[in-house]
Specification:
This protein has 14 helices and 2 strands. It has 337 residues and is mostly helical. α2 runs antiparallel to α6.
């Protein structure tokens, strides 16, 4: 069972994070103003972690600092690169000493809107997520309790935590600072959005692809809908007949969840290859071909995944449309550096 793989320090940290802290008394409470694209709702912000300039700045510093890994060799940014929409271009990102886990690094764009984090939904909120890669042997391989000790021994970090939370670094404040920064990673200014708002129209091929995407024939938009092009459901898309990684099953232990993973956002999809939970599909054409062929036929495969009979031209048109969902400004925005 998954719980047996948790180390003692991780269990202690989870217990610590589950406790309600005393009210914070930060030195700087200047609110951070999120810039929301047209049509985007305001994300829910936890009452115990109001978004402030100091917290976002601290979270950004931690995100890029390898101090959170056991040997100070990798940072969050090592696996989540801005030019790739805070994803990675390797099937599996190497961790400390080059160790490999078993899942592809997902985009962090618009994670502020997720109610369950990670591809299997095993983390219940964004402010807890960072403990997973920090403690994972194949990623940063560090006790978050020891990470807090390391940060508290650094005067500049001690001052930054006092400014943001009025507290020392702790599992609670480390994860919440990182959550604050990740909540600012909002992306919604693609060419598709511009066209929808009355700007430059899509090309003929892109427009044909858009019609296919939203058609009853492909049903793409029944899973990838809304402002973020996902309903955040956990579904089996028939990638395999047998899954080494059970996905949602690892969390629930229910057989009906075998092979189910979160339906990802399609925003910036053209820069987040390779695809699927294990990075096994190299490019968008391979993804479209997978769905065009109708999957492998796993018992839990969603019934909407079935042979589509798309021609080569139609597949190219669909890919052309997906490429319009890239937010180039997000990939270069200085506020995230």
């Amino acid at each position: 069972m998954f719980i047996k793989k948790l180390g003692l320090s991780l269990l202690l940290a989870v217990a610590f994070l589950s406790c309600e802290p005393e009210a914070f008394s930060p030195e700087d409470t200047t609110p951070f103003a999120l810039k929301l694209p047209e049509g985007f709702p305001a994300p829910a912000i936890p009452e115990d972690n109001a978004l402030t300039e100091a917290r976002v700045a601290l979270g950004k510093r931690l995100f890029y600092d390898p101090v959170l890994s056991s040997d100070s060799s990798i940072s969050c940014q090592s696996c989540h690169r801005q030019e790739l929409a805070f994803a990675d271009d390797r099937p599996i990102s190497p961790g400390v000493q080059g160790r490999l886990g078993f899942r592809n690094s997902p985009t962090l764009a618009n994670v502020a809107y997720l109610s369950r984090i990670n591809k299997d939904g095993g983390v219940t909120k964004l402010d807890l997520q960072a403990i997973v890669p920090i403690e994972d042997h194949a990623e940063m391989d560090f006790s978050i309790l020891l990470a807090a000790e390391r940060l508290n021994a650094m005067p500049t970090y001690e001052a930054a935590f006092a400014k943001a939370y009025g507290e020392h670094a702790s599992p609670f404040t480390i994860t919440r600072a990182l959550g604050s920064f990740m909540r600012t990673m909002i992306s919604g200014h693609s060419r598709y959005d511009i066209a929808q708002q009355g700007g430059a129209p899509l090309s003929a091929a892109e427009a044909r692809g858009e019609m296919l995407f939203f058609s009853s024939r492909t049903q793409c938009s029944t899973c990838h809908s809304g402002f973020n092009f996902t309903q955040n459901q956990f579904l089996n898309n028939g990638l395999y007949l047998e899954y080494e990684d059970g996905g949602r099953h690892r969390v629930t232990l229910q057989e009906e969840d075998m092979g189910k993973f979160r339906v990802p956002t399609l925003r910036n999809i053209s820069v987040t290859a390779p695809y699927m939970h294990d990075g096994s599909l190299a490019d968008l054409r391979a993804v479209v071909q997978h769905y065009n062929q109708g999957g492998k036929g796993h018992a839990n495969q969603d019934p909407r995944v079935k042979p589509l009979g798309l021609s080569e031209q139609e597949q190219s048109d669909l890919i052309a449309f997906l490429q319009t969902l890239t937010d180039t400004a997000f990939l270069t925005d200085e506020q995230f550096r």
